[in-house]
Amino acid sequence: MKVESVRGMRDVLPAEVGLWQRLEREIRSCFERYAYGEIRPPVVELAELFSRGVGGDTDLVHKEMYVFPDRKGLPLALRPEATASVVRAFVEHGLHARGDLAKLYYLGPMFRYEKPQKGRQRQFHQYGVEALGSLDPALDAEVIDLAAQLMVALGLERQGLTLRLNAIGCAADRPPYKAALATYLGEHAEQLCADCQRRAVENPMRVLDCKQPRCRAVSKDAPHSAQHLCGACARHFGEVKTYLDALDLAYKEDYTLVRGLDYYTRTVFELCSDELGAQDALLGGGRYDDLVSVLGGPPTPAVGFAGGMERLVLLLQGLAGEDETRLLDAVLVPVGDDPAVRSAAVDALHRLRVAGRTADMEYMARSLRKAMQVAARRARWVIILGPDELERGEVTVRHLASAQEAAVPLARLTEPGVWPGSV
Ligand code: AMP
Question: What's the chain look like in SS3?
Answer without folding.
Answer: CCCCCCCCCCCCCHHHHHHHHHHHHHHHHHHHHCCCEECCCCCEEEHHHHHHHHHCCCHHHHCCCCEEECCCCCEEEECCCCHHHHHHHHHHCCHHHHCCCEEEEEEEEEECCCCCECCECCEEEEEEEEEECCCCHHHHHHHHHHHHHHHHHCCCCCCCEEEEEEECCCCCCHHHHHHHHHHHHHHCHHHCCHHHHHHHHHCHHHHHHCCCHHHHHHHHCCCCHHHCCCHHHHHHHHHHHHHHHHCCCCCEECCCCCCCCCCCEEEEEEEEEHHHCCCCEEEEEEECCCHHHHCCCCCCCEEEEEEEHHHHHHHHHHHCCCCHHHCEEEEEEECCCCHHHHHHHHHHHHHHHHCCCCEEECCCCCCHHHHHHHHHHHEEEEEEECHHHHHHCEEEEEECCCCEEEEEEHHHCCCCCCCCCCC
